[in-house]
Amino acid sequence: MQKQMFFALDIGTRSVIGLVGEQTGTAIRLLASDRQEHHTRAMLDGQIHDVMEVASILDSVKKRLEQNCGPLKKVSVAAAGRALCTIRSTAQLETHGRLLTAEDEHALELAAIQAAQHQLATSNAVADPTLYYCVGYSVVTFSLDQSVLKSLIGQRGKIATIEIIATFLPRQVIDSLQSAIQTVGLEMATLTLEPIAAISVLIPPTMRHLNLTLVDVGAGTSDVAITREGSVIGFGMVPCAGDEITEAISQSYLLDFNVAEKLKRQLSGKTKKVSFVDVLGCTHKVSVQEILDAIAPTVGQLAQAIATQILELNTTAPQAVLLVGGGSLTPMLPEALAQALDVPAGRVAIRRPETIDGLVNIPAPLQTPDAVTPLGILKLSGSRTLNFVNVTLNDTPLHLFNLGNLTVADALLAAGIDIRSLHGRPGLGITISVNGQTKFIPGTRCTPGSILLNGQPASYDDAVAENDILRVTPGIDGTTPSPALSEVMDIPAPYTITLNDSQCLIEPVITVNGQPAAADTQLTDRASVICQLPVTLAEVLAATGHTGSSIEYIYQINGTERRYQVRPQPVIHRSGQELAARLSTKVKPGDAITLTPPAAPTASDILGIAPATERQIVINFNGKPCSIPTVQHTITLNGKPCTPNTPVPSGSVLELTSLERPAPIISDALLAARFNPRSLPPTAKVTLLLNDQPTEYTSPIKQGDSLKTIIE
């Protein structure tokens, strides 16, 4: 029986380490290893920037390993914690008192991961949750019926519970990693997080009751993991590491980055002086202490950044800090970190993987701090870490993290397809007002989409497996109605009348939002429709363009321009009868309407001279009523005297003079009665009696008085 082979790659910012091992009982025996540094800075801060350059290094490592171990098809990798997002989640399983198995424990872990995915999708932790992958998880606690246990296997109870820390990274980080792997003909078998791999090597579960911090100091990132009370309680990342020190050396001595990197590695040896050539071609021989003094501030800054991340995750200084990774060999870093955390210097130490539980045959070249993470990746490749299921969705290859019981819904989520779009949305209804009455018009129904799994109709809950083919057709949304006006109301029929001997068709007057409209006008939401058939004389005249408005006359009155309007006199002929009409009179079909032009206004109309009955007093003169005006008006039309009843054409000039006499006298009464004493014979004698008493021509007179004249 052929033994199972495992291939692990640690794709770091500075170098790539490849390991091959085979399963031997419960352990993995190392068969081969290879290491190669990047020729250029193809990776920065744990992120691949030049996929093809990284792929060429992977291909070289892979080919050298295949010479010893045969063809390699699948590989286990780990991602750096760049842009890391961690979420704590829980899951429960009702066990009904049965014996719990390893499968039950694994099912709980996967359920907790799915709960973390849901929590990420419904929170505001990241801008777009669909752009994040779950790259690893760590169990915090198992419990059975509220009792905390290290493992659930072999236990009995009613309700099993798990709490995990799930870690998520942006899809861009994983996609670039996967692209480089696929370029060299490899398939990603498992994926984990670098600090998870490192902690599996150096801090086994038996040590996790201690408050320990593991810091994997690489070239571009420093990954942090913390244990306490029996579990891993948090992960973090600092986007600076050994390259910061290299940059400091390069800046201080004007060195090529690769030269500065070689110089940095010589600082940890016993050499007291080092030689190098700067970018100007000058050769220098400098003491190691001088270089250490130059980089001391940068080392202190790196230590402070790592300490800040540790305190943020742990809230206090841990009991001890374990440093791994090539960057952990940076001179003065353990001492600077101990000072930043305010812990004894002996509590911060560089760890090397001399012996690892679950790995055998570790060669001396791999017993170095930078080999901890690749050894951890290899160790986890044989365990239940996250692997992939390859499916095709709408002709596009899709790599799904196998969280167990993968469904169609998981594939749609990974492809960034909104599940709601497959249902389609009903069209939005509109509300309109028709002659003051509100009407609601619903939108059209949506057309649901379809899902085919391997050519057969499928639902969201159907399971997907390796090499399945999905075909998803989005639903078609319903439409918002845009009805014609004639579809939402009955438009009254027009009728015919005769106006000034001409036939006129009286049609309904239609407006939408105050603007003229027709029967085929398309209506939108909140449209206000008014449709009225003209029925009154005023409405009929407006509909025919004969507004029935007044004719306007313009005058100059006492030097000021004035305007005067006169309305035409409408007459309706109906069934042989002539009817006087007002603007409010209702018109019937077949009516004949005549508009008679109005006569020119008189002076009294224009000047507003009150009728005689309003400005006069009445007395009894010789037994007969006699009206005496109290105001005397003098009117001229275009410079000539006229009476109040004289018609006045437009454009005329009027002058009005009024003399008010609030208390008329006897002479006014005689003038009003047209009594002229001069018409009497010269020998005639006139006697005036006011209320039967003798009076004079200048005596005042009032309403109701009696005036008599006696002629002798």
UniProtKB/TrEMBL annotation:
**What is the protein named?**
Cell division protein FtsA
- Keywords for the protein's UniProt record, in alphabetical order: Cell cycle, Cell division
GO biological process terms, semicolon-separated: cell division
SUPFAM superfamilies for this protein = Actin-like ATPase domain
SHS2 domain residues are 6-202
At the top level, the lineage of the source is Bacteria
**Do you know which InterPro entries this protein is assigned to?**
ATPase_NBD, FtsA/MreB, SHS2_FtsA
Q: Which organism is it from?
A: Propionispora vibrioides
